[in-house]
Design a protein that fits this description.
Blueprint (H helix, E strand, L loop, with lengths): L10 E2 L7 E3 L2 H13 L7 E3 L3 H6 L5 H4 L5 E12 L2 E5 L2 E4 L8 E5 L20 E6 L3 H10 L11 E6 L1 E14 L2 E21 L1
Length: about 200
Amino acid sequence: MTIRKGEAWGRASPLPADGAVVRSDAEARAIVTAARRRNAAVPTLGLLAGDLCATLGGGGDEARLHSPEAMTLPVDLGSVLIDGRQHWFVAHLVVRRSWWRGRVVAAMNAQYLGDWDVAPRSHPNDGRLVILDGNPPFGQRILARRRLPLGTHLPHPGIDVRRVAALQLDLERPMPIELDGERVGVGRRLSIRVEPDALHCVI
């Protein structure tokens, strides 16, 4: 069940013996992808770093993951068909040629993208992705970049922000696509959706 307002989230429970410790969003995505490709269950992920870890409040202490103080949290997973090929992402999807010119689209399951607080109102277990879509002028991009570390770049007249369970994105031409900080190729037609409660993460 996705989180509801006023309800407790997660439970005190250490990483199980068959869990996987990961040190980046890309490493977590690789484990998810490998499991899904062979139709296997995704192991519980012990998070030590990455944007999803930061969003969940993880501290990077590996000993804690195996201790009674560890918290296990249900987390949503991002799914995307890129020109018909299936991919997954744990933290974010970004479509861009450059941060400084052209259209930029981000689908955020996590709140952070590196040092930037891109989606300050996102929650990784609410059954929604935060979509930011914009092509603001260069000067406005400079101002927004200065505000990104504190999450004060929103609202912005040049950035459309939505919370969705699914989104069909048809681009004017193929564009580079990054999943969890790694470029996976180029694409033009993207079918993005959230898979609620698809992951269990330990911090």
